[in-house]
Amino acid sequence: MPDKSQDHDVAETSEEETETRQQCVSCTEEYSPSDIVQTQCAHNYCCDCIVRLFENSLANEALFPPRCCRLPIHASTTVEDMIGIEMMKRYNERKTEMSDFERTYCSIPTCSHYIPPQNVRRGVGICEFCAARTCTDCKTQGHRGDCNYKNTIDHSSASDNKKATATNKATATNKATAKNKATAINKATAKNKATAKNKATAKNKATAKNKARDENYDLLVKLARKKKWQRCFKCSRIIERVDGCWHIRWAECCPPISEF
């Protein structure tokens, strides 16, 4: 005859296992507690779903950090074991990037990688991926001298007049400087003339390079004025308006406070 007491013990064991299993709030499947991570809001996620949640947050800045019920999901030891070393590294890098409210990205369009603060020296960031130099103020290619492009978008005529006056003063100064240089060259010896010529050549090359950069930037500024684009008041990047009203919430740039 079958042992009914043994069947009863098996049934009790099965019920206990069922009671200890927990349901994933995302896929609704049941798992053992060791395969579940619980969030701040007491919701449970399985390994596959928590990995998917972190992958989506790394692919879209607006979804970072990963959340449940609008509360961040902390990278606990259990989460680290689930998502793996490589994804955990990417998570920490993105966390550093998102905590930088004056972040700079590589000025080379085909690169555009984030430049961390430790790679910035004297207002110029060096990209770890392509070694390009980027000005941390105007966000364009690195250049010599002070940067005056941080607040170049201004719709007021007063600002334009000030710029015109400054340009005229600079032109007059350049003419006077050129005249003084010519006088100095005439008085100098042949050796000094050759030295001055070499210096002038090097300066002209640098000036031409900066002029090309300035022309490209001026075109961008003119387009921004025409389209009435604005700058983020934190990271200084120009924001393109695609559609909707003029009220801008730039969540991907400086979350969560950039709203203007």
UniProtKB/TrEMBL annotation:
GO biological-process terms attached to the record: protein ubiquitination
Low complexity bias: start-end ranges: 164-178
Residue ranges of the region described as Disordered: 156-178
GO molecular function: ubiquitin-protein transferase activity; zinc ion binding
Domain IBR: 90-145
Record carries keyword Zinc: yes
Record's keyword annotation contains Zinc-finger: yes
Keywords: Metal-binding, Ubl conjugation pathway, Zinc, Zinc-finger
Annotated Gene3D superfamilies: Zinc/RING finger domain, C3HC4 (zinc finger) (3.30.40.10)
Pfam families reported for this sequence: IBR (PF01485)
Domain of life: Eukaryota
UniProt xrefs under InterPro entries: E3_UB_ligase_RBR, IBR_dom, Znf_RING/FYVE/PHD, Znf_RING_CS
PANTHER family in the record: RBR FAMILY RING FINGER AND IBR DOMAIN-CONTAINING (PTHR11685)
Record-given protein name: IBR domain-containing protein
Organism: Penicillium digitatum (strain PHI26 / CECT 20796)
